[in-house]
Structures are given as structure tokens and as C-alpha cells.
Amino acid sequence: MVTAICSADLRSLAAECPESVSDEELFALLNSGPTASERALLFNELYRRYHNRVQTWCHRVVRNQAAAADLTQEVFLKAYRRTSSYRGDSKVSTWLFSVTRNHCLSALKRRIADPLAASMPYPRLLCDVSATGPDGDIEVLEIYQRLHLVMERCLKPLEIKVLMLHYGHGLSLSAVTDSLRLSNPSGAKAYIVNSRRKLRKALEGNDALAASLRRARAA
After folding, report:
1. Could you give the 3-state DSSP secondary structure of residue 5?
2. 134 lies in the same domain as 214
3. Residue 148 contacts residue 121 (beta carbons within 8 Å)
4. Virtual CA dihedral for 140, 146, 147, 151, nearest 10 degrees?
5. What is the DSSP string of 85-138?
6. CA 85, CA 27: separation in Å to the nearest integer?
7. CA-to-CA distance for 200 and 66, rounded, in angstroms?
8. How far apart, in whole angstroms, are the C-alpha atoms of residue 181 and residue 17?
């Protein structure tokens, strides 16, 4: 729980020199019922401290500077509305990373909501990351981002969609066949078999990525 005492001296210090208060004190003040102007000042200080880091996290997920900038603004808006959810049982950076990660993953989910739209696969592993901190989670996201680039190079768009729905969303082969209205005799199974063969061949020349994927699955 947040235990910092919001004394008059702390409030005065934050008003005159917000960069001198700790992250935890900053949140204690944010959650102590400040005026609108005080809240804006305090949150602007949080933004100053973490903007670059959050944008870096976002960029590692989407690999696009403009999209990362948009996501960063959305993350801080969400954080602004949810400062009361910070209870002090972790570092502020860890809490903010959690907000960032969840928002980025939600953005990825929205991109693949339409199975017929060109979009990024969403591996189930990303829902169950057991890494010890932000860097571990980011590493997993980067691994799957690299895998997607390999998929784009060696697979057809429809093959990517089939893999996405089956392995990402967990749909059965018959459900994938119906969803994509596949008319071939073997349905989605034929696409899975062919795509896996292509990916194995592609990964034969990328030992580093293949090793990273094995480590990610074992995490």
C-alpha cells in the first residue's frame, strides 16, 4: 500500500520542484485529492520521467514510430484516469509498464478482431508471460515480432490468418475452416501443414530466432 504521508512540506516541495519528489511520493500526492492544477503539475512530472521509456516499450511492440507515439499518448491518458489503482506494492515503473503492456496487447487484439483483415498474429504465449519484469516481457514481444516478419516473408496472407486463428485465438481447425470459408478438401489443416513446413525451412537459416522461440516457449 502507498504509505507516503502527504505533509504540507511535501506538497510545497512538489509544487515548487516536482522533479525532487520520488515516484512513490508523486503517486501519494496524485491520490490525495489534489486540485486540478496540482494534479496536472504532478502528472506532467510523471510524463516527463517516463514518456521516452513508455514510447520505447510501445515501439518494440508495433515497430512503427507513429503508431508508438499514438499508443504512448493513449497509455498516459489511461494512466491518468487510473492513478488510484497504484497501491504501492510495486515500483511505479512496474505499474506503468503493466498499463503499457496491457494497452498494447489490447491494441493488437483490436487489429486482429477481423480475421479477414491484414493484421499481426497474437500468440497465446503473450497472455501468459511469466517473465520477472518489463525487460523479460519486452523480450518475448520482440521475439514474436521477429517471427511475424519471417512469416510475412515466407507465407501467404491467408496462411498467416489460418495460423493466427488456430494458434493465436485457439480456434479448432474446423472453426478456422468455417470462419475463412476455405473450400479445399482438407480445410485449415492443409494450410497449417504447409505453413509449418515453410516456417521450419525459413528458420533453418535463422538459428538465433529459432533458439529464442524455444526459450520463449519454455518460459
Report:
1. coil
2. yes
3. yes
4. 160
5. G--SSS-HHHHHHHHHHHHHHHHHHHHTSSTTS------GGGGS---SSHHHHH
6. 10
7. 33
8. 62
Domain with 195 in it? 125-219
**Count of domains forming the chain:** 2
| pLDDT by 10s per residue, the chain, length 219 | 444 457 778 888 778 888 888 899 899 888 888 888 888 999 999 999 999 999 998 887 777 788 889 999 999 999 999 998 998 888 999 999 999 988 887 776 666 554 444 344 444 333 343 444 555 556 666 666 677 778 888 889 899 888 888 877 677 888 889 888 899 989 999 999 998 888 888 877 666 666 655 555 555
Number of residues that make up the chain: 219
- Grid cell in block for residue 83: 492513478
Report how far residue 125's alpha carbon sits from residue 183's, in angstroms, rounded to the nearest whole number. 30
